[in-house]
Amino acid sequence: MRVEDISLEELKTLANIIAKYVKSYDLNFIYLNGDLGTGKTTFTKYFCENFSVEPSQISSPTFSIVNVYNGVRTIYHVDLYRIGDIDEVFYVLEENFEDKEGIFIIEWSDLFKEYFTEKGIKINFYHKDEFLRDIDVITDLRSLEEDLRRWDCEREKV
């Protein structure tokens, strides 16, 4: 499902809706893809607030590869942009994936599609201009799609 013309501020509502489903359906994986500066880390900040993680703790894991945030559930924020090959992905993430209660937010997951086969929610971010982006949310949860459609219709009325 595509939601168009989303501002950075509106990412908060989107993140809150998705967090509700992660909690309700015990999902552990969120896959974020999109060019630099499209809002992946901002989305992550808003998402993590739903799990009692202070937004000031959230930063892009571009150089650290994995940031770990402790809240109601442990959140692993992973950035694969600088990873060279699938063996490196496995080496970096192997011990983290043993946390069955953790939530994994994987930026640039499309670089290693064959590795990330766990059920989750995929979100693709597309730059429109300096202030707006389009977002595709790919999920098999029909109720999530319905909530997103309702929210999108409410946005259009404003």
Characterize the structure shown.
The model has no long low-confidence stretch (mean pLDDT 90). It is globular, with a radius of gyration of 15 Å. The chain has a 7-stranded mixed sheet, covered by helices on one side. It is of the alpha/beta class and 158 residues long. The chain has a single domain, classed as P-loop containing nucleotide triphosphate hydrolases (Rossmann fold), CATH 3.40.50.300.
User: Strand count, sense and closure of the main sheet?
Assistant: 7 strands, mixed
- Bin the helical content: 25-40%
What is the H/E string? Answer: EHEHEEHEEEH
CATH architecture identity: 3-Layer(aba) Sandwich
Decide which structural class fits the backbone: alpha/beta
CATH topology: Rossmann fold
Report the mean per-residue pLDDT as an integer.
Answer: 90
Task: Give me the Rg, rounded.
Answer: 15 Å
Q: What is the end-to-end distance?
A: 20 Å
- The portion of residues forming beta strands comes to 25-35%
**Which CATH top level class fits?**
Alpha Beta
- Say which CATH homologous superfamily is assigned: P-loop containing nucleotide triphosphate hydrolases
Number of domains: 1
Oligomer: single chain
SS element count, helices: 4
- The shape is globular
Tally of extended strands?
A: 7
Low-confidence stretches: none
Cross-sheet strand order for the largest sheet: 1-7-6-2-5-4-3
